[in-house]
Design a protein that fits this description.
mainly alpha, two-stranded antiparallel sheet, 4 helices
């Protein structure tokens, strides 16, 4: 559906003054790397984590959808506008800060279900 399609790289580049070539040639189609499949979402999550891990910055804010975070990045639930704090451990896996883990998100509004990956409503393929 058109409402589920991202803006073109040219539009993004103009609007945000950033080089979006890393998105690849198939963006914003819903095919290949951007397909609506569990495998593609998990692969994008792995690529995102690998990219974040290699960044030189000490603090990075990631803004995205709960579904992507829950299914492909950290497997935690997020309420709207909530946040969680993570660091990379020695195995290059994400560890959640005890503060945000204990209180169900930084604003204490996320659903307290602990580790949550794919759920029945995510059924895509």
């Amino acid at each position: 559906m058109p409402c589920d399609m991202g803006s073109s790289k040219d539009t993004l580049r103009e609007e945000y003054k950033y080089d979006f070539t890393a998105l690849g040639d198939s963006y914003p189609s819903k095919s290949g790397r951007y397909a609506y499949t569990k495998e593609a979402v998990e692969a994008r999550g792995k690529a995102c984590i690998d990219w974040l891990r290699l960044r030189p910055e000490k603090v990075i804010v990631v803004v995205t959808h709960d579904g992507f975070l829950r299914t492909a990045i950290c497997h935690r639930k997020f309420a709207n506008a909530d946040y969680r704090i993570f660091t990379f451990n020695q195995q290059n896996k994400l560890d959640e800060s005890p503060m945000t883990a204990k209180q169900n998100g930084g604003m204490r509004r996320s659903i307290p279900d602990g580790y949550v990956g794919w759920v029945k409503s995510d059924s895509i393929t």
